[in-house]
Amino acid sequence: xxxxxxxxxxxxxxxxxxxxxxxxxxxxxxxxxxxxxxxxxxxxxxxxxxxxxxxxxxxxxxxxxxxxxxxxxxxxxxxxxxxxxxxxxxxxxxxxxxxxxxx
Length: 103
Known about the structure:
This is Phasin protein. It comes from Legionella feeleii. The chain is mainly alpha-helical and 103 residues long. The chain has 3 helices and no strands. The chain has one domain. Helix 1 (2-32) packs antiparallel against helix 3 (47-98). The two termini are 26 Å apart.
């Protein structure tokens, strides 16, 4: 019984870890987003410069968003494969303890 409780604790930790990694990734991504600063706006001489600068910021943030998605999927993939493996081991161990043979 004690062994099963430890396995459940480990399972909960395994599910918390990807959430913590995603939260850290969210924070890092939001802190690195580009935006127009007020001092940059005062340096603009022509209206088209504002459009150019906005497009540049949009492209930068689009690349950062793609990088974010790639990292987020990597985190979930890594942890889901690990969770599936752990669940399989736990299931097989439970079957062995119950005396049930697996086909």
